[in-house]
Amino acid sequence: YVYRSLLKFSEELMEDSAFNIEAELTEALSFRFGRAINLACTTGDGSSKPNGVVTASTIGKTAASTTVFTRDELLDLLHSVDPVYRNMPGAGFMFHDTTLKFIKKLAIGTGDATPLWQGSVRVGEPDTLEGRPYYINQDMSSTYTAANKLVLYGDFSKYRIRMVRDMQVRRLDELYAANLEKGLLAFARFDGELLQANAVNHLILAP
């Protein structure tokens, strides 16, 4: 899939700037492409976009509620993944930052008010959930409504992103010259796919 992005800027800006405006705009394009690739490889439909990891994942647990999930349901999700992938180095949870806030309010339960989320007490070691790492992905759903896939668990190394080349940037000097403008056109070709369908499972709210 080819992704393109265009930035236009005035010649006056380029002449008057005290810093390298072209380098700044190229960096801005890099952030724009990074966000576009993350979105496509998270929720892409595999038709007009890459097959996103959420789309490609297998159902691991359906919550009883249409608006919340429980600690037991997170455990069911964890154990729905084949142990070969569940225990791989780097295997963990993935969810939106809003879901992390929700999880931080969950307790272990059955009379134990200890928080389910455990902050790291050692420098350099990450916070964990059920002793497993977690990854924040702002392109996952943060809406607690029916049939939303809120949490993934699995071995994310089995999801591969292929970029044919690095992002290419071309400067357009003549196309917008009548308006005393220049352009930067960036483009990249990439695709994504989950190579092992049972390596990543999702928790979905009740339909």
The SS-based structural class is: alpha+beta
Order of helices and strands: EHHHEHHEHEEEEEEEEEE
Strand order of the largest sheet: 2-13-9-3-8
Return residue spans where pLDDT drops below 50 for at least 5 consecutive residues: none
Shape estimate: elongated
Main beta-sheet annotation: 5 strands, mixed
How far is it from the N-terminal to the C-terminal residue, by CA?
Answer: 32 Å
Total helical segments:
6
Care to count the β-strands?
13
Global Rg: 21 Å
Q: Give the overall pLDDT as a whole number.
A: 89
Helical content band: 25-40%
Measured by DSSP, the beta-strand proportion falls in 25-35%
Explain what the structure shows.
- With 207 residues, the chain is α+β, with helices and mostly antiparallel strands.
- The chain is 27% helix and 32% strand.
- It is built from 6 helices and 13 strands.
- It has helices at 11-16, 21-43, 53-56, 71-80, 83-86, 97-104; strands spanning 2-10, 58-62, 92-95, 107-109, 112-115, 117-118, 128-129, 134-136, 149-154, 159-163, 168-172, 181-194, 200-204.
- The strands form 4 sheets. The chain has a 5-stranded mixed beta sheet with strand order 2-13-9-3-8. Strands 1, 10, 11 and 12 form a 4-stranded antiparallel beta sheet that branches. Strands 4-5 form a two-stranded antiparallel ribbon.
- The radius of gyration is 21 Å and the shape is elongated.
- The two termini are 32 Å apart.
